[in-house]
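Appendix B. Raw example, untouched.
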Amino acid sequence: MAPPRVSFFTPSGRFETGERICVSFSDYHPELWNPSWGIESVLVGLQSFMQEECPEAIGSMSAPAETRRKLAAASHEFNMKDAMYVQLFAGDKKEEKFGDDEEKKDEDDAFCRYCRLPGGDLIRPCNCKGTTRDSRKRPWNLFVHGPLADIRSRFCSGSNEWAHSSCLAKWQYQAILNQNTHPKYQTGLEKICNVCLSEFRVKKHSREELMVSFTGAEIANMVTSSCLLVATEKSSKRNVELMEQYEYLVDRLQHWTKSVFLITECRKSPDGKKQLIVGINLTQKLAQEVAEHNARVLANLGLPPDTQQFVGGPVQESEPYVLFSVYESKLKSHNSECCWRIMQDKESKDFSVYYTSSYHYIALALEWARDAIIEARLYWGCACWDRVQLLGEIARGGWGLASVHIGVWTEPTNQCWKSTVASAIYAGANDFSKF
């Protein structure tokens, strides 16, 4: 159900020895794997890939032709020094031959595309057809590069016609685990056969149901507005290591490192099929030199020049979002269509924090609460997740959830992450967190 790790040990001048080779049918790309390919397909794919020049691919190299000829001439002597090679290929072995009757019998017997075993509860999961005698005599031209849509023209459908219901369910489960949490990078292998490109007639698992089972219903139900999303210690530590090693990752990873996001909105996507989760980062202050350039924006919004400014997230970075605290007793009215209360002091009930966004509504909200405002903070940009995506990231161990508390607003930003990460709850170990 998972792709192989591919490494070369014989020097060839084409691949680095002892290193993982990045091809579309290796463990570098589990989201593209098809378990019906088998060892023959992988070997044919490697042969095809070896004849290409891809020095930029991980594990590949491009030695001069003269060097490759010398390595090829020395390869037999090199291999004969390897005990495993000698055991597998250099001993006295009788050549195995299969007659037409045996081949015909193998063709006629229906067997599962996943486990390769005949019998049992076999179903036709998609539009793939059985193997023909001619197709068995041709090597499969496994695709090495290119989109999934190329598979039909590059890859014989093979023996994909049949599958056990249980094996299909196992594959759909594994296919979901193998894919990225972000919808943009998901291939839909659990829904669509990546050989004939038709939808599976039976879908045993859905991504949302699996993610909820991994996080637990309690955590899944906490993903609502006025909840805190906190980066875990483990994921933050890993991000710090990556940013120290690769400078170009700093801008991408700093949003998700030792950060606390206040979930401010849970709304339907434009097509109505998904729920979008919007949050703003409470822990990343805007650089002072950048903040000073926003004096005119602050004035237009009705905010004082010393207003604290933050990087709210990587989405819509030029759009303003505002949190402001008020004394409820000083508000002229308690109903406003331009903002809503996001947290409240449980003891006094008089100290509250409101949320609003967009230039127009910010100006209206500040005017509505003008005499009651204690402090306002401006956030540039936000973060946005598909609900199922966020549940996946929580299940994988990247985030925890905590109930909102007024201390998040009053304590220093450098203490916000430390206190929240200690009080949050997290998903337990599960199959998704192992990836």
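End of appendix B.
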